[in-house]
Amino acid sequence: QSDNSDKSSVESDSETEVEQVSVYHKLLATLKTSPESESEEEEEDESESEAEESEIEMDSEASQETREADGGGEGQNDVPEQEEATDTAEQMLSQEQADGIDTSCDPSHGVTEEFTDVKHESEFSLETNFMEEESGDCNADKRDGNPFKQHMDKELEEKDIEKMSTLPKTSSQSQWPRLGQLTFSSTLEKPKTLKADKEVDVKQLYLHKPLESTWPKVNKQYLSSVNKPSDAFFTPLQRELFCIMNTYRDLFYPERNALTNGEEIRHAYCLHALNHVLKANSQVLSNNAKKRDQKPGTDNDDHRDQGLTRPKVLMIVPFRECALRIVHIFISLLEVNDKRKIDVSNKKRFKGEFGSDPEEKPPNLKRPDDYEAVFAGNIDDHFRIGVAILQRSMRLYAPFYSSDIIIASPLGMRTVIGAEGEKKRDFDFLSSIEVLIIDQADIYLMQNWEHVLHLMKHINLLPLDSHGVDFSRVRMLNLNNWCRYYRQTLLFSALQDPHVNSVFNKHCFNYMGQVAIRNVPLSGSISHVVVQLPHVFRRLEAESSTSVIDTRFQFFIDKVLPEYRDAIMSHTLIYIPSYFDYVRLRNYFKKEELNFTHICEYTKKGGVCRARRFFLKGEKQFLLFTERFHFYKRYTIKGIRNLIFYELPTYSHFYSEICSMMKATDNGVDATWTCTVLYSKYDAQKLAAVVGIERTAQMLQSKKNVHLFVTGES
């Protein structure tokens, strides 16, 4: 239980062992909201006078607010300092009934009893049902060129597996009209350059009934009036993404934006996932009928159409609201018309547990548009639910081993998978996943990336139990434990990040190869800074990506901090993306007895109020400020005169947001404003997102410090 065993008081002054990376990982697993803290979250009044801002006023503001949609969910809200944060993920793991079925979590009060729909088991059993004539599309699935059949029927050999395990991938690049720069990589064969379809012939998509007729209606809201009649199915982005998805290649798209293209991307991958499930199930039901009509004693090996367990699609999303939208899309895609509604079991319960009450969110909160888009609806981040689909019916809360699709958060998966040594753990249901969809991967960097890695280590392993499977129907690829080489992974993120790239490069083994979108930012977020400000980028030299953490710390305390110790350099905010670095700096500042205050994702409401007031009035010279607090709160910090980015922000637009906070204090001292940024050659992606690709190339070639002066919206 290394992820969850740290119960120590990491906020105590004397605790230095938290500076170890392994303990940092343990610390991440403790990000759990206590019910008490949710009711006392603070609302920030942007219009209040900073001179008269007081703790009493802030507390009175908080008492008026019932609940703030600040993104913490089960992981990140206004949790207490570590001494009091005892409601940890470890306790969650021990309390969970992690037996391979879904959990119903009360968004307000954490985990409640398990609920599993056992009532409809026989109705949704693949083994005992047969294909209905009117809903069947099995003949269409046999057409030449059907991507599903081509992909799943491909028979790999031992030498192919050995090649994929040992040989490096070869890659090629292509330019597409909407997606831009694509990199195709594969091990088995030289990557074939895919060409973007300018128009879509729906017959060539091999969509299963009823998707051909329902998709245009469901997707109509995203289509513009300029779309040609022959292209009345997809937006330009959807067309190119689905073209790749439908070839069953892995896909990494790092330009997902919750404000602009998030929903059209969601619709595209929901279409692909549902199409896959309907085709797989129709194949099973069709073969059921053939076996039923088969003469006794006839041994036919042509009916291998299943995995070792039933779940075929795993969809990882950050919040319950995302799961709600996905299920609504599925229902819309399955309903041919108003007269032919599909039967959805447990729909009312699902709406109650995954929906949200609009009155819960105070109407007077002022947050950026992208914040509102990401944290819309129910933002609880601990959930999992099984979905079974059979012809014209959908079963929500299906037991995992009777589900076709599992929709879950990383934390929801982590608590059911468990850790080595735990009595109650299960991951057999992940053994035959054929399509893995990870949406909004960047948000998991703000939650707990360890949960994602834990999931990837437990997917497509041989099950420990047979779970009643008919081995005569199991595909040879599953019996050979080769499912990982057939699994398609679709990865969507708002940014390029080494952690996300690593999952795509090291945990995806699809024999069809990978497609990654690799566009470079021409202009960075620095152009959106709205204040005139000198930006000094100070380069530090590190021998490796692992040593850069210690090198940055030493560079900061030796070269940067001495310049800010003088009292004249007051009102200095230090922005720190990593919580590990934050703890290390805080301990150092305490040891050196510097005049500072600090705000992190664990700081109580009262502590945040005091820290902001002390910093604004100049009573504290330094403010240590974590990125995750900014991600989940997005408060405007007033009184900043000097800004230090200890490391470049994960989200590039946070750079311009933090810099632009300086205008919140209009006291005519803008001539003394400073901004210092620490970076190394290992920060190339983050640096390009801030200053643009051309400046990044120049800065990485030169070993000198770089001075930039931005004159607002340049």
UniProtKB/TrEMBL annotation:
Q: Which domain of life is it from?
A: Eukaryota
Which intervals hold domain UTP25 NTP hydrolase-like? 248-515
Q: What is its main location?
A: nucleus
- Gene3D superfamilies from the UniProt entry: P-loop containing nucleotide triphosphate hydrolases (3.40.50.300)
Key word Phosphoprotein present: yes
Bias (Acidic residues) ranges: 37-62
One GO term (biological process): maturation of SSU-rRNA from tricistronic rRNA transcript (SSU-rRNA, 5.8S rRNA, LSU-rRNA)
> What name is this protein filed under?
U3 small nucleolar RNA-associated protein 25 homolog
Identify the taxonomic lineage of the organism of origin: Eukaryota, Metazoa, Chordata, Craniata, Vertebrata
